[in-house]
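Hey,

The postdoc asked me to send both predictions to you directly instead of through the lab channel. I've kept everything plain text so nothing gets mangled by the mail client. Protein one:
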Amino acid sequence: MKHIVAALALGVSVYACLWTSVAYAQTNELAAWEEIEARGVNQDVYFHAWGGDPQINRYIQWVAEQVKQQYQITLHHVKLTDTGEAVSRVLAEKSASNDNNGQVDLVWINGENFAAMAKHQLLAPNWVAQLPNFALTDPDNNPAMTRDFGVPTQGMEAPWGKAALTFYYDSLLTQTPPQTLQQLSLWAEQHPGRFSYPKPPDFLAMSFLKYALIALNNSQPDAIKNRLYQPASAQSQALLLPALWQYLDDLHPNLWRKGQHFMSSGLALRRLMGDGELALAFTFSAAEVPAAVARFDLPESIRSYRMRDGSLSNIHFIAIPYNAAHTNSAKLVVNFLLSPKAQAKKQQANVWGDTSVIALSQLPAKQQKWFEPPALSHPSANIANQDISPALSEPHPSWTKVIATQWLQRYGVMR
């Protein structure tokens, strides 16, 4: 009996120690966050983010208003045409030994830009777990929250949103849009000048080209097509890229302006759809389409869908450079970006339509309702086929530069 009592006492003692350890850790985390809050208030934060979409710009302005009210932080949206501009700025600062007073506090980033900044040690490490709202993404059960194009983020960037390649067409100009990449080539031949894509290295252009590269090599043996998710070696390029160039050689003569000119951005692509010059286009923000219809930027005859052979999908992130001048303030902004309030608003189609990274199971029922989509005034522009379109993972970041460089060598001269 004494042994049983002793064992029970030992069990209670161990349990008490574990409980005490957990409570101690939680107390320390709370104290650490309170210190970040105390140091981060009443500062400026320079957020370097793509500025090519009015909807997104307005959302970031709303965020600025919120963090001003909550933390007296003045958030400056530094509008970029290419995220590489921010990467180059931080790299130049590091070369000049500016290790504490950088001009970039936050950067909207993913893929090759993240890989480049991580490679050159340009990002602050191990800060994401400090954010109370990061737990709402349920990272333990959702590994995509800690991997960027397959590369572990190692606490250097926080997830911000999810997106997938979505096509849309004018139903008055075509009733049977292509459902696969191969059908797209035939459709373009039957509808010359009615489809195009932006010029690389534009993000939307690269999304289309990576989707094409994956789809065109889908019938390859696993040992070959899996090389897309590894660094792009010379051998891998020789095995995988010829199918893409052959496809584009056949497609380009049937594009808008016979493939002799490519627009500069996804916004320009959408404008051509609004003007009726194109009958088919695509976006990486599905809710952009019904929102543009509601604003009369696109006609009511627009319909959205996803290709049956797959939709390129990814998560985009927010990172803090290693030399940010206002690190604590930047963390407060990112934590707000991950809040249910900010994520639910961002997901609204008439605001941005960017899919939330929050796992709704982590929220109380009342907050889960914030994410329920409202009835849209133009439901016909919503996505069709999304449930039968496989999600295609982004290739290794190194493929982006390889594709863009070789595309410009082949097709970029005199354009």
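Protein two:
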Amino acid sequence: MKTPLSAPLPWSLPPPTSSAADSPCDLLGIVPVPPAELRAAAQTGISPALLTAFFPQATETMALSRSAPYYRPGQHLAAVPALASALKNVDKHAPGELPALRHALVENLYNLLTAGAFALWESLTDQPAQQPPGAARLLDDLLEAATHLAADLAGLAPVGPAEVPPTDLLSGLSRWRVFRELDSQQKIADELSYLISHVIDPQPEIRTVLVPLYGSLALALAVRAVLPALRPDRQLSVHLVRLGFHDQARVSYLQPGGGIDHTATAPESHREALAAAAAGSTVLVVDDNVGYGSTLRAARSLIHQLGGQTVTRSVETAWQLYHRSGRHDVSDAADLPSLRPNLHYTIQNRLISHLLRTDAAAYVRDPAHRVPGRLSQQMAASYDLAVSTGSWSSGQLAAMRAELAHATASWRSPAVPAAPHHTRAAA
């Protein structure tokens, strides 16, 4: 029997901090950790220095589940064994008693492994001949361990991490990304609930899911973790490609004669797996954000090269571009564009900068957290704008209405602040 998804997925998030709160997470997906949980954790033997470094106190009644180490993963890989040990300690000595702290431990461990996996993905793709023995196997081990942690975050796996692979080979990597654009467990839960109910279940011809990296990596691994558990009969495969024309402009994805250079997108074994899965298949492409449409168009071209067809989806849409003179029409790029407005990268950068400066109090005080209204109200305004442009098909508008109804009934993601004027959006 299929799991009904008219209600939110059973995501393993701590409860909201007040009865008036709609979501346990904020704009970035950070959850508040009660100081009492930190004190109780220290009594179980977890290092107070580890707790202070990773979960900074912002107010007298609240610490944060993320800190500078979360957003500087290349500098903090050495903490992986300590975080894994702390998680085991909580599960052994305080099972079920420290929900916010446990979520924070899992997510910090998950972030370090996924950030390491992407750094290694880039290195294996761009310099395959220069990799030490075992690098390709380590990438797969990192993705497997991170997928287990994603299942844990979703409440669909036994507690505790899988065997955490050694990270020694990652210490020599030079490129580390500071943050992923789609990095909120509540947002991922809302999106997956919509995708399963309104895209995957109604379209049995979809057998493959493709997620462009880097911004969508957290969603990609959640899909890998959740879909097999909730839809085991579908045998869906999930694949990753590095594609981007805003934050990855240094990479030449376009071939001189047209088409996409597949060798620039993934290590060899992952390219081969995608090619086999895409041939003769309908592939659901899910990107974190559509602004100019370049990434979705490139992903579609790649799948067509491999002999497949696509259904393209954006988790967020840069609707502010439609207010500009000479608006950017992406109706040809996103078959299923979300009505969710995007959290602009400049706002994300500002919020993260507070944490990088170790100023948790400034993070909490930032006005971006105090947006009036609900996300569903913002989405309704996006729908009105989409209708007014006249460029979307009746099928696309019907999908938007279905998403709006789903969001109004069950989504718990917070509303987002308006994007600044005269700034670029993601691709």
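Summary for protein two, as requested: Residues 422-426 have pLDDT under 50 and may be disordered.

Thanks,
C.
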